[in-house]
Design goal:
Elements: H1 3-12, H2 18-28, E1 60-65, H3 73-88, E2 93-96, H4 110-115, H5 119-123, E3 127-130, H6 143-147, E4 158-162, E5 165-169, H7 178-191, E6 196-200, H8 215-220, H9 222-228, E7 232-235, E8 241-244, E9 251-255, E10 270-274, E11 278-284, E12 288-295, E13 300-307
Parallel strand pairs: 1-2, 2-3, 5-6, 6-7, 7-9
Antiparallel strand pairs: 1-11, 4-5, 8-9, 8-10, 11-12, 12-13
Length: 311
């Protein structure tokens, strides 16, 4: 069965609420939580020993953050931690996984919610590769952000490679061009020769936060991840941090506490979760990728290892 055909069968088989109803609920939610850390980390291993990084430098290093665009103190605190991290651990680019401008994607706010908080990084040549969140499409369907040079978007969905990693940015919104996007994604994944494949989008797939499991995406996206050897999916939407175990060869990372936080729990797939203002870092080696979470105290509070694999 083709991806296109299977996609519509899945959407049509949802509960009486329906896919449109589900997205309407997400669309109507406008708050972004608080801009301070919650008083708890949801993971019982909150004080666990952190796995050390190898002594040798990685082939590639990058960071990710999401749900940033508040212009409030929480965002600026995370941005300061990102700048401090780079002073000791150089990186050239960051993944910005949606909800880049609150509350309604107004591009006129870009200075306060992007250019000013990340000014030190931008001045050092760090590039941000963005995707659209549900708040971003509220103004002109997100088109001003797609055209904004600082977000380095080559369209509403696009791919780029930073050897040895190929990245695939998705538009995960309810009004995305799913027919063509799914065909494009399968084609690009099938043609990729990169040993590491990382997909990022705004919305969650596996989550222990407010939105929980995303069953339509589990049915449509995760089979492609498994078939073509995607090792990592990065997203925001949940305003927390959560790292899953490998699920059919793919780890799922939520890094949506870049501007505010909400509570998060734990599930059978959870390796670590926390309601902490934070960003994630990635140290890529030939056979392993180390994923680290860093809070506004500039300390690592979680680190996991992803193994390379072949499709």
């Amino acid at each position: 069965m083709s991806i296109k055909r299977r996609h519509f069968l899945i959407l049509g088989s949802l509960s009486s609420l329906g896919f449109a109803g589900l997205w309407k609920m997400l669309w109507l939610k406008t708050d972004w939580g608080t801009d301070t850390d919650a008083a708890f980390a949801a993971s019982p291993e909150a004080e666990k020993e952190i796995v050390p990084l190898p002594a040798s430098p990685p082939i590639l290093r990058f960071i990710s953050v999401a749900d940033t665009g508040t212009g409030a103190s929480g965002q600026y605190a995370v941005a300061a931690a990102m700048t401090d991290y780079r002073s000791q651990n150089p990186f050239d680019f960051a993944i910005l996984a949606g909800d880049n401008i609150y509350n309604n994607g107004e591009i006129e706010k870009i200075e306060a919610v992007f250019e000013k908080p990340y000014q030190p990084l931008l001045q050092q040549g760090v590039k941000f590769y963005a995707c659209l969140g549900n708040h971003d499409i509220r103004t002109a369907n997100g088109d001003p952000q797609v055209k904004y040079a600082g977000f380095n978007m080559q369209g509403r969905y696009y791919t780029f490679r930073k050897d040895p990693v190929q990245f695939f940015a998705l538009d995960t919104n309810h009004n995305a061009d799913w027919d063509n996007q799914l065909v494009w994604l399968e084609k690009e994944l099938s043609q990729s020769t990169a040993p590491w494949k990382v997909v990022f989008g705004h919305h969650q797939i596996y989550s222990s936060g407010a939105y929980g499991l995303n069953k339509p995406f589990i049915e449509t996206l995760t089979p492609l991840f498994k078939k073509y050897g995607v090792q990592l999916y990065i997203n925001g939407h949940e305003h927390s941090y959560e790292r899953t175990r490998s699920i059919d060869g793919t780890a799922y990372l939520i890094c949506g506490a870049g501007g505010g936080t909400r509570p998060v729990g734990r599930s059978e797939w959870t390796e670590y979760s926390a309601s902490r203002l934070s960003f994630a870092t990635f140290d890529v080696y030939e056979d392993r990728m180390f994923v680290s979470a860093i809070g506004t105290d500039k300390r690592v509070f979680d680190r996991g290892v992803i193994q390379v694999r072949s499709a």
